[in-house]
Amino acid sequence: MSLLDIKEMRVEFPSRRGHVVAVESLTLNVEPGEILGVVGESGAGKSTIGNAVIGLLEPPGQMTAGEVYLDGTRIDNLDDAAKRRIRGARIGMIFQDPLTSLDPLQTIERQLVDTIQMHLDLDQAQARARAVELLDAVGIPDPNIRIEQYPHQFSGGMRQRVVIALALCADPEMIIADEPTTALDVSVQAQILDLMKGLCRDRNVGMILITHDMGVIAETADRVAVMYRGRVVETGKTEQIMGTPVHDYTKSLISAVPRPEKRLHRFPLVTYIEDATELGDTLDLATHWLGQTRDYEGEDGDLLQADNLHMRFVTRHSFFAKHRLYLDAVDDVSFSIKTGEVFGLVGESGSGKSTVARMITGIYTPTGGTIRFAGADLTALKSRKEAAPWRRQMQMIFQDPFSSLNGRMRVRDIIAEPIHFHKMASSKDEAEQIVHDLLDVVGLGAQAAQKFPHEFSGGQRQRISIARALATRPRFLICDEPTSALDVSIQAQVLNLLKDLQQELGLTMLFISHDLPVIRQICDRVGVMRHGKLLEVAETENLFEDPQHDYTKHLLDLMPKFVGFQELTA
Amino acid sequence: MLDSDIWYSFCRSPVTIASALLTILFFIGALFAPYVAPFNPFDLASIDIMDASLPPFWQEGGSTKFWLGTDDQGRDMWSTIIFGARVSLFVGFASVIFSIIMGVGLGLVSGYVGGRLDALIMRIADIQLSFPAILIALLIDGVARSVLPRSMHEEVAFYVLIFAIGISGWVQYARTVRGSTLVEKNKEYVQAARVIGIGPAIILLRHILPNVMGPVLVIATIHLAIAVITEATLSFLGVGVPPTTPSLGTLIRVGNDYLFSGEWWITIFPGIALVLLVLAINLLGDWLRDALNPKLR
């Protein structure tokens, strides 16, 4: 008898358009002290498992078949009150976003002590002592002092530690962690994973670790269950799944993860997933619209040159200058990008990399420094009219495919907007033809033009975004974390598309990412940013093989060591 | 998808269906009043003073010709109510549209431009909110009456009324739209438009406006009920529409004088009509608010 036994679980979400089966005939078990990784892409039903086990399925979802046993007793058919006693006391929960899973209006002490007293028979002083002990165990320095603080006084990683402490309050036998490190930076992620691993081992707690990240699984889990469309397609020891996967989907999923240790020509494609369309034949630039009338010279040298860029935001407004507070988001950053080159900017959240991109495209006006593009000083341009010819030559692809397309416009109008604005087509029909061509280029097909953005998946939306960016025939493309909101299989497709387009069209690219393996696959040169400063610029291979700055070394150390399964792809 | 969801929620709520039917009946009555009403109460030739103050048909002395009775001048109550609702709804609609244009426009600019202009517009809104809407409408009406020559009163009364009610209601739209604009303007699709080089006016109209109109629609529905009430109140106080084209409010005021001399129907029936109209629109607005709110679905 295992600690947790799930037998033939089926979860349905009834709706008036038929029942959606989120999880089907799922059988899993977790032993004490074991970490079971549940991995899969969005919509695979991973989170539903966790919620079903603790009885927190969002209505109208319900478990329609199967049994759940905790340490030999059946728990899925208990009433609400009994389930509530199990939650927290015997099964702890760790959620994805530490910023929202703590009550901002209560001190850490209140939240911990309340939880402890709810489940254990302790008085105020004892409960507090236990809370301090727990904070110490999850690695919060000076727990005696910090326990009296509010959540906003903790950083993201520290908050996640507090959330873990909360989950441990009543000494649960079992912890369910739902994407516990997805919202955190790499350096923090490694620490949190180490912490969770240590806790499970020391306290003999079983854990279900739900994540989409193969790297996290490889480093943390003892066993893995791979989910695809509500079903477990494969379970086994982590080394076995990573090294010698049997199911096609697992193979695809693993091979799609960008490799940190070497540069490949292109990403292996996930053939198991149906919408894996590729840029078919090479474009014939001489006849294709994208290649026609490229009205700028194929000059060599630096296309973009940024000198001493500075961006200061006012974080507290005041009438008096001395009461204002500022944040220097970008501080004295200088770099240049050669024509035809892919330049990467890498850094953790808040390092100022997106701000740099927004200054170049003119969304923000820099508070200092100059940006020269093809010889022209963009920062000296006064009006939008003056800037228009340069705007046309540089376009941007955004991070979040769900907010970067106006949901009230048809795809055709979205892509045609820049064409009409820059008067790149002489007639409506010509514009229509260009839109169709562009949709073909990004692998969606002309029939997509009539639809609205919400009819597409994240990856398809990102393709629409790319089509819109190409519509002005730019020579310079800025990609701001273009794949960080996508599943890894989709990420591989989109990155391949970007890489193909870059080579076909001879685009110059600024590629912003926090993901070092992706950077290694895509970029020619890389700049490392931290706290608004550019620390190091180097050729990609040099940077990965021989990093100069301490912070770069630190980042490279934290990169998930994800190897294995090489022989199968090679 | 969305449309069919709304239709589904509509079909499952009998109260909403009833209020929608009632609202539609009122609208049809108002639009086609000259064809729907059995008499034209403004046609002096058809009015016979001998028919004055007849009770409804079920009372002693009433006739089925005037089934809701007649008023003090012999006009058929049923017909005057239909024509009165027409005036009430016209004023209500026109002032709501006025409020929307003003409020949405100022809200968009306030939210998008920000800074001092935003502060200025929002402080004006705050100041206006500290006065009851009816007071502002009364003030404007009073000013217009004293400024304009007496001969013009009748012809401009409608426009003054619409302006007065409209301007007292823009704040809610401006605040809501400003809030949504602040959210929308930081979304990446707006930034994408800026990267293309599109100017603020087109970004506001083509990109942001369609994305902030959802809540405006809901407010407008409930605001229509409020505007009808405000109009009725002003007309009841005697500063609303001219007596030659009576609205529901005017009818209630006129009937009020006869209430204690036994002719209760002159004021009660227009009152019931007003209550039904406002209630139906309000219920419809409540439903629309819930149906469009994904959290309550």
Structural descriptors:
heterodimer, A: 570 residues, alpha/beta, Rossmann fold, six-stranded mixed sheet, 20 helices, globular, disordered C terminus, B: 297 residues, mainly alpha, MetI-like fold, 12 helices, 72% helix, elongated
Question: Quick recap of the structure?
Answer:
The complex is a heterodimer of chains A (570) and B (297). Chain A is α/β, with parallel strands linked by helices and 570 residues long.
What does this structure look like?
The complex is a heterodimer of chains A (570) and B (297). Chain A has 570 residues and is α/β, with parallel strands linked by helices. Chain A has 2 domains: 4-256, P-loop containing nucleotide triphosphate hydrolases (Rossmann fold, 3-Layer(aba) Sandwich), CATH 3.40.50.300; 338-366 and 375-561, P-loop containing nucleotide triphosphate hydrolases (Rossmann fold). Chain A is 35% helix and 24% strand. Chain A is built from 20 helices and 20 strands. In chain A, the strands form 4 sheets. Chain A has a 6-stranded mixed sheet with strand order 6-7-8-3-9-10, with helices on both faces. A 6-stranded mixed sheet of chain A has the order 16-17-18-13-19-20, sandwiched between helices. In chain A, strand 4 and strand 5 (73-74) form a beta hairpin. In chain A, helix 15 (458-470) runs parallel beside helix 16 (488-505). The radius of gyration of chain A is 26 Å and the shape is globular. Helix content of chain B is 72%, strand content 0%. Chain B has helices spanning 2-11, 14-31, 33-36, 77-113, 115-129, 133-147, 153-167, 170-185, 188-196, 200-237, 248-256, 265-292. In chain B, helix 8 packs antiparallel against helix 10 (200-237) and helix 11 runs antiparallel to helix 12. The mean pLDDT of chain B is 85. Chains A and B meet through helix 12, strand 16 and helix 13 of A and helix 9 and helix 10 of B.
